Amino acid sequence: MEKIRALGRSGIHSLERLGRGSIFLMRIFGGFWSILKRPRLLIAQFYSVGVLSLLIILVSGLFVGMVLALQGYNMLADFGAEESLGVAVALSIVRELGPVVTALLFAGRAGSALSAEIGLMKATEQLSGLEMMAVDPIHRIIAPRFFAGLISLPLLTAMFSAIGIYGGYLIGVELLGVDAGAYWSQMQAKVDWYDDVINGVLKSIVFGFVVTWIAVFEGYDAIPTSEGVSRATTRTVVHSALAILALDFMLTALMFGDV
Amino acid sequence: MNQSKTLEFLVGLFIAAGIAALFVLAMKVSNLSSLGQTDSYSVTARFDNIGGLKVRSPVMVSGVRVGQVASIDYDSERYEAVVAFALNGQYDKFPDDTAVSIYTAGLLGEQYIALEPGGSDMYWENGSEADLTQSAMIIEQLVSKFLFNKAAETDGE
Lengths: 259, 157
Description:
- The complex is a heterodimer of chains A (259) and B (157).
- By secondary structure, chain A is mainly α.
- Chain A is 87% helix and 0% strand.
- The longest helix of chain A has 39 residues, at 85-123.
- Chain B is 32% helix and 32% strand.
- Chain B has helices spanning 2-29, 32-35, 139-156; strands at residues 40-47, 58-61, 64-75, 80-88, 99-104, 111-116, 128-130, 133-134.
- Chain B has three helices and eight strands.
- Chain B has an eight-stranded mixed beta sheet, with no helix packed on it.
- In chain B, a hairpin with a 6-residue loop joins strand 5 (99-104) and strand 6 (111-116).
- Chain A binds chain B through residues 40, 43-44, 46-47, 50-51, 54, 90, 94, 152, 154-156, 158-159, 161-163, 165, 184, 187-193, 196-197, 201, and chain B through 4, 7-8, 10-11, 13-15, 17-19, 21-22, 24-26, 28-35, 56, 58, 65.
């Protein structure tokens, strides 16, 4: 009896959180105009969310591309199809690994920082202070962070993909001796701008939306104690990772399912 | 003030790098650069069987890519596949008796259209129809033909 009640309680609780999150999202979108009036706020967030994530994204992109080339080469060499290495690297990065790995790294690097920052602002009553001064904290604090994340992630994904393919080139062509012309020309012949690249960008926009939404909401909704903030930060990373992987499956089924 | 200027500079650099990466993906990685050509002309050809030919499959002459398949339709009156392919405008000297065949790239590769120029003085232009066509080889048909021939041979003996 008690077990069933606990189940119901947690169900109602998560539904309630989802509802609060959605209302919160609507209010963020309401803050869009106040950002246009104060673009400086957005730029500051761009720096902390986007520019500071750049290093980890670029380095991981390079290594992911290099590993893919190394693994793909061994596999393809069995079939005498080393020339397809470029296609294999480019398609797997542009379609899947670029959006997903970038979003996971972004959730770990920027999402957790956002949650912790906003949660701490709440715990130290800075948000209430803003409200006291008749400044809407959602317009002033949350919305710039949300839109900065939403725009940064697709840009970061594009950089990840580009440098990943270059990493594949370094290993495949410079180290393993695949013909450079075959690497690029096969890639250009098989990778489609709309079907592959644009769909990858669409994925990253969806991920950017979900990750920053989760991050700012967890921070804003955190219990204002140090323990509450730490739990909110953990939840941000865990929920973002789950959401990214589940959404990635659904988006892939929709985009490339070809059913 | 100075600090916020560096900040703006770095953010600007970040956005520019993102757009540049997208540009690299467009031009260097994907086939966008070969799609934008407007000066192409279209030629149609009829086949009994097109095998695994798809829209955007390449059209090659002597192994050089000169165009791509634009559309594939089925003519229910004549029971034939109608394939329209767009040829790059700079290659406008194809005699009208050029043979159009469907070949396979490699053993298991994708199928493409191969052109073999003939000797006519008249050239293809936009909307021309190719007369000499050769359908795709279907591997099952080849195998069954081979087996039937073998069977017939052994019966004869």
